[in-house]
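Model it.
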Amino acid sequence: MSWGTELWDQFENLEKHTQWGIDFLEKYIKFVKERTEIEINYAKQLRNLSKKYQPKKNSKEEEEYKYTSCKAFQTTLTEMTDYAGQHEVISENMTLQITAELTRFVQEMKQEKKSHFHDGRKAQQHIETCWKHLEASKRRFERDCKEADRAQQYFEKMDADINVTKADVEKARQQAQARNQMADDSKSDYSSTLQKFNVEQHEHYYTHIPHIFQKLQEMEEKRIVRLCESLKIYAEVDRQVVPIIGKCLDGITKAAESIDQTHDSQLVIDAFKSGFEPPGDVEFEDFSQPMKRTISESSLSNSRSDGKPEVKFGSKSKGKLWPFIKKNKLSLKLGAGPEDFSNLPPEQRRKKLQQKVDDLNKDIQKEIDQRDALTKMKDVYIKNPQMGDPASVDQKLAELGHNIEKLQQEVQKFQGWLAEVEGRLPARNEALRRQSGAYESQNTSAVSNCAQDRESSPDGSYTEEQSQENEVKVMTTDFDDEFDDEEPLPSIGTCKALYSFEGHNEGTISVTEGEVFHVIEEDKGDGWTRVRRNEDEEGYVPTSYVEVYLDRNAKGAMTYI
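Modeled.
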């Protein structure tokens, strides 16, 4: 099977077919290019998607990723980034192994095709020239034969005419002989030209054209083989990344299997557990008999009663439900809480303090490592003065020593607070209470004449114990805890500052020891009392800093100290 023998007369059709083959190959190249662009765009979109849902550093969202479900999702995002990388590999390999190679091959095919068809046209022109020469020789032979025949007839006519002179007859005879000779020469030339043309034609159709068409056939078959190889490479490029993509998917599956709902539930408990016990039963208050009522210790403080005077059973108690009541806006306006986290519930406070101690210990260890390294460097300088001046590191060593001492003091301070929370310390000293913003009053109030022990709960609330003889009956009143009241709140009593307080945070007010204020909102369990100095200046002060006298229409007064 050969194009040269089977398609010897299909020169134009072969030219069209080979051009179609090149166009088809270019079409395939365009297809692969568009596929690589899709892979690149897909990988880019996957990376952007994964980046979009990654938790932002130092944000609340990052804290959420302690849960196993969130960790699994983060692993999925990481695996999707690797997954996107494999699509980039597909694009790169297809570009290098298919697009670039086929583009170069197409250029070579175009040059080869051009050369072959140039040779074919040249052969066609040569055979056409030979054919034209043969036709010319044939026409000349035909013309000479006709003229010789006419000359012979004219001679015979002249020879038969008795009236014609002998000279005219001889002339006609000579002309006939000349024409016949010319006819014989034309015949010989025609025969020679015909033989030569037949040889050229045979070589054209059996040698030159088959050779050229065979080259074209080889070129076309090479194009087909190259396309076949490219299709295999196309599939192999995808197949090469399948194992890695499978690992990415296996990683996602493994991350999903690592989700532990029980562990996540325990993390929720660890994150929000307050450490308080639920409130006890609310006792019945009998208003039919004259008696004094007081706000007694809530069962919320029972867990903190170790080492404290026991609540006297003769006093009537009213359970505080403030952990479940709407918090006022003070927590939003005050910004950062106290240094000892006393505004937090016990369990959360313990975790924060422990975390702070661990962070400080890490900082101390870093400083110690730096100090040890500088000490070794100084020893080297002492032994080898040419390497450096030992005195050059003294200042840095002094700074590190100062930093370590300062950090150790911080650790001791936070360990003290931590020990108190965990019940290892009986009580705070006065300085510690002042620094954390909560105090235990050791003196007896001269106004109320009732001995009270104050205890700071870690979330800023306070409990009180009063003697049975000095119980004070008080009516509970609900006040609006919003800041944006249109009308100023009425005064519900007065208070006297026991200590000075610098109100740096928004919503607080500065007070000096001994200063008297109007109370416009009593403590709702968060450890803050709202007071007014004049008609325009009001704010919150720690309840433990003031002594409060509530006006209850001569029914008694409640004192906070």
